[in-house]
């Protein structure tokens, strides 16, 4: 036996990453190249709009199926420049390679959740990772102050990160429109919740671990926001709980692609037609892994509830309304420390 691992990281036996099905029957792969040639129509039922006729309607159907059956899909030809991906990956590696005291200078606090952090807990077990969170806007409510913190010793980091944010945000809006159309909503139905959005980018570094069978890079969880757009490097480690049989499936890295997953808010908006799916990150004993999720979230003033168009006499709303800003604050607090109880979840708002 080598050194004992800190028990704060050790997962309960039933949550340890034993079985994953590598690459088998993995998530749908969707080619977004039709978006490079066509605009997204505002009204799918308008027969005079030629964009809807062919490639775009096919794309909407693929997105709808992936959202319904998987809650996850991978996209290629997404319009974000490969050079930009390379730059943000390189600066991510440089940031985490900074001396610990430099990273500590940009550490997040209890009121400001932006910056560096190496002690996040998911479901009250410590994650084997370090992260850096940033956004392009800064705002303040009674309880939270989002204030970006950039390391002095890496002056180019801010501009690269901000450019990256804007690139993936553009993709985010396109995906929101396609998802809205797949739910038979008007294209911009979801987008208007995103003015003054509470979105942010996270840089993740998962270091090698001597006991990859006992810990997780991120414990099993569902993303609580709107939509997540994830860039991962070639190492691999993201596992998804497949809806059809509950098996953990490893997502195979595809160069220059993004992994998209639906968060809890889309589940509530769609009144459970689409679901946010559980996932986790396994680590390994040899390689560092880097990933970069963009959490595309509505404005913190948004009150989330099933959309009127998607409920009816026979399909009553399944959730009570909740405020996204309050939910986000409660989550941030619970991730900051180990608690004895479960943190806030959307099923707490479920109507019985
Ligand atoms: C997350 C997450 C996956 C990954 O940060 O919510 O699920 O591959 N990350 O890093
Ligand atoms: Ni996640």
From TrEMBL:
Assigned keywords, A-Z: Lyase
Enzyme class: lyase
Keyword Lyase (UniProt): yes
Enzyme Commission identifier(s): 4.2.3.19
Protein name: Ent-kaurene synthase protein
């Amino acid at each position: 036996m080598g050194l004992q691992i800190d028990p704060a990281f050790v997962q309960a036996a039933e949550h340890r990453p034993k079985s994953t099905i590598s690459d088998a029957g993995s998530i749908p792969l969707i080619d977004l190249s039709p978006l490079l040639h066509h605009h997204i129509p505002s009204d799918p039922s308008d027969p005079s709009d030629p964009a809807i006729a062919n490639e775009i309607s096919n794309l909407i159907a693929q997105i709808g199926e992936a959202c319904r059956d998987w809650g996850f899909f991978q996209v290629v030809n997404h319009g974000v420049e490969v050079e930009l991906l390379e730059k943000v990956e390189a600066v991510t590696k440089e940031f985490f390679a900074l001396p610990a005291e430099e990273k500590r200078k940009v550490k997040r606090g209890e009121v400001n959740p932006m910056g560096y952090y190496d002690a996040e807990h998911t479901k009250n077990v410590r994650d084997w990772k370090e992260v850096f969170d940033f956004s392009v806007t800064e705002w303040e409510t009674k309880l939270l102050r989002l204030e970006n913190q950039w390391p002095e010793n890496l002056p180019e980091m801010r501009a690269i990160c901000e450019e990256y944010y804007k690139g993936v945000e553009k993709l985010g809006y396109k995906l929101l429109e396609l998802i809205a159309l797949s739910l038979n909503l008007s294209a911009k139905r979801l987008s208007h919740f995103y003015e003054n959005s509470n979105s942010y980018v996270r840089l993740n570094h998962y270091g090698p671990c001597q006991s990859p069978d006992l810990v997780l890079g991120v414990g099993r969880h569902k993303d609580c926001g709107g939509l997540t757009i994830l860039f991962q490097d070639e190492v691999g480690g993201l596992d998804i709980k497949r809806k059809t049989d509950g098996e953990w499936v490893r997502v195979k890295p595809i160069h220059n692609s993004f992994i998209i997953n639906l968060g809890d808010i889309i589940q509530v908006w769609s009144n459970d037609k689409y679901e946010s799916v559980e996932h986790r990150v396994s680590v390994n004993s040899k390689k560092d892994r880097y990933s970069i999720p963009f959490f595309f979230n509505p404005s913190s003033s948004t009150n989330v509830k099933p959309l009127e168009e998607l409920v009816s006499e026979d399909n009553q709303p399944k959730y009570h309304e909740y405020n996204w800003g309050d939910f986000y604050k409660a989550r941030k607090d619970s991730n900051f420390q180990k608690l004895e109880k479960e943190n806030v979840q959307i099923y707490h708002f479920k109507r019985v």
